[in-house]
Amino acid sequence: MATNQRRLLVFAGDRDAGIDAAFDVVRGADVPDDEVTFVTTREGFRFHRVEPRQASQLLGTTQTVVVLDAHDDFSANTLGRVAGTVDGGGLLVLLTPPLDEWVTRRDSFDERLAVPPFTTADVTGRFRGRLVSTVRDHPGIALVNLDTETVERTGAYRQGISFDTSLPTVPRDRRFPRRAYEDCLTTDQSDTLGALETLAEPGNAVVVEADRGRGKSSAAGIAAGSLAAEGRDVVVTAPGRRNAAEVFVRAERLLTELDRLESGSADDYILRSSRGGQVRYVPPTEADSAISIADVLIVDEAAALPVRLLTSFLDAPSVAFCTTVRGYEGAGRGFAVRFRDRLDESSHDVTDVRLDDPIRYAAGDPVESWTFRALLLDARPPVAQLIADATPENVAYRTHTPDDLLADEHLLREAFGLLVLAHYRTEPDDLARLLDAPNLTLRALTFDGRIVSVALLAREGNLDAETRRHMYDGGRIRGNMLPDVFTSQLRDEEAGIPVSYRVMRIATHHAVRSSGLGSHLLSKIRDEFADEADYLGVGFGATPELLSFWRENGYGTVHLSTTRNDTSGEYSALMVYPLSSEGRALHDRHAEWFVQRIGDVLGDALSDLDPDVARAALAAVETDFEASLSDYEWRVVVGASYGPGLYTTAPGAFRRLGLAHLTDPGRVSLSEREERLVVRKVLQTRPWSSVADELGFHSTAQCMRALGAAYQPLVDEYGTEGALEERDRHR
């Protein structure tokens, strides 16, 4: 404990012997029971016990000793979460089967990787094999073979140990209370608190980046407490309430020390100060409305949130984005690549600050470096300068099998580093899936041997009749997202028969984006799987840009979800690219069903869908949609567009005609504003006043006239002979 570093002790062998050994270690270390946690499926301990699948409960806590039982229900996520809770000078104890046997053993996590039609026998042990190799050679790890009762590694390690425990000084020129700075444990944290002082004035933004364990959430909490003590209304948001726990603990402590805490508690995620300020948690999907009346917004684990939500947070008077650079919460590089430009273009004055000094443990901590290595938390794509000249003409298309990746650590880091950037939240379990899941396969474009674009594909479908019936009756089938939605939600029991490859992730290096490499990779994938699969598919949080990208690559919209994703706040789109006659049949019927129902859905569950998302989704539908208006309906439409008629007389006719245009927008030229008007008023049935307001019309009367004018070219193009005669009467 004198070094304030942590150590890892591995007991490999019989499970009961490992538990007994762990008890001996705890007794020998003379650690209080309340500072010990066992993470295991076993029961009957006097210590605090957590089920492995509930290990996230430990986030935001610190323990002196954590014992992780890897004999049952072990996962990479559990390891990542548990390792981060061990305090400086503490011990992480890992109980494993005999190491060679552990690689070949299959448990409940492997069962989750065995998605139908694959079985557990198809799951490999590459991830655990790689993990075992790190246990055997990484510094600072003690390894005890329980079967032979021998110490194979002592774990002796002194590299990077520093005994400098000096605390930062309190700056003279400060806004926040002296007590706030006295609560800082490192100079990094004190400097960060100084940067966060700017949030007291509107028009400021602060970006705080750090690896795990550097105290960024603590600094944010001290700042939140200081602002509330001044009387400010501080909104805190994060991917989940637990992610914000440390912010509230530190804010409550400071307000108590300042004698300013009036009511509330960190457990309730709301604190009120005697000066009228408050600190309150709001879920990410509700934060955009909460910030309209708040003074400051603090976003913790910002890298785990999608760009659309982060962009909406720029409406806050002042905002702090705190992000983990390397960790399972999200990837700071993705935050920087995707969102930073929007932040810099905003009206906010931006201050950047980074925390490097560990707080919970000393620098050079071997458990941290082992966790980064074993779980690839520090994986990154190639250096930009090495691939800056990559183009579709000079890259090579490659299949990288899990064995290829395992044999080349550099290649594995580059591939996984790009996959981290492809998604707003990538977990250590994704590394295990990449190496072991039988349904996943990786394709990449390389330039001079460096990966510049990568796609992770999931094989789906080819399900037997019993499995399809189970899905149709409401049962969930792992790893078959598209067949599951088509079958259980859209009531197509035959959808599980065709074989498909779903593009789970696709990413291109930020240095060569917008150069056609992503589309080139998709074209190569289409060529490769043309004779092997019935269709390619994709599902993603729908944005106009993504819908247009997939449309340009030949994918057609077949579904929009009717509920928002809890984390991203976006509706999901499903798109399909047929490869065979069976795939074409599936695509065609679902595209037809989608157009048949979307008019009603937009007026109901999707009434708040962004009109540009609706426009892009409908433009990507590949089916012929006939408006099919009766003679009477045509007279109403013509009367409302060219004459004195009213839209409200037959809104269904306007809806069908609007869908005919939006699913084939190239046939008639309408402006973006006119198309938004069709979506908002005709399809989503918004009140005239709100539509006029949103689209910038001076009055509802002007908005009504604009709708009639927008339908004139549609009458001209789609109108029957009788409709055109009716039109000519009004000219």
UniProtKB/TrEMBL annotation:
The residues covered by the TmcA/NAT10 N-terminal domain are: 3-144
> Know the name of this protein?
tRNA(Met) cytidine acetyltransferase TmcA
What are the BP-aspect GO terms? rRNA acetylation involved in maturation of SSU-rRNA; tRNA acetylation; tRNA wobble cytosine modification
**Record GO cellular component, one term:** cytoplasm
Keyword Transferase found: yes
Q: Which family does it belong to?
A: Belongs to the TmcA family.
Q: What biological function has been recorded for the protein in this entry?
A: Catalyzes the formation of N(4)-acetylcytidine (ac(4)C) at the wobble position of tRNA(Met), by using acetyl-CoA as an acetyl donor and ATP (or GTP).
Q: Where in the cell is it found?
A: Cytoplasm
Q: Which organism's genome codes for this protein?
A: Haloferax marinum
The organism's lineage is: Archaea, Methanobacteriati, Methanobacteriota, Stenosarchaea group, Halobacteria
Does this UniProt record's set of keywords contain Iron-sulfur?
no
Enumerate the InterPro entries for this protein: Acyl_CoA_acyltransferase, GNAT_dom, P-loop_NTPase, TcmA/NAT10_helicase, TmcA/NAT10/Kre33, TmcA/NAT10_N, tRNA_acetyltr_TmcA, tRNA_Cytidine_AcTrnsfr
Q: Which residues bind ATP?
A: Q189, R360
**What is the reaction catalyzed?**
a cytidine in tRNA + acetyl-CoA + ATP + H2O = an N(4)-acetylcytidine in tRNA + ADP + phosphate + CoA + H(+); a cytidine in RNA + acetyl-CoA + ATP + H2O = an N(4)-acetylcytidine in RNA + ADP + phosphate + CoA + H(+); cytidine(34) in elongator tRNA(Met) + acetyl-CoA + ATP + H2O = N(4)-acetylcytidine(34) in elongator tRNA(Met) + ADP + phosphate + CoA + H(+); a cytidine in mRNA + acetyl-CoA + ATP + H2O = an N(4)-acetylcytidine in mRNA + ADP + phosphate + CoA + H(+)
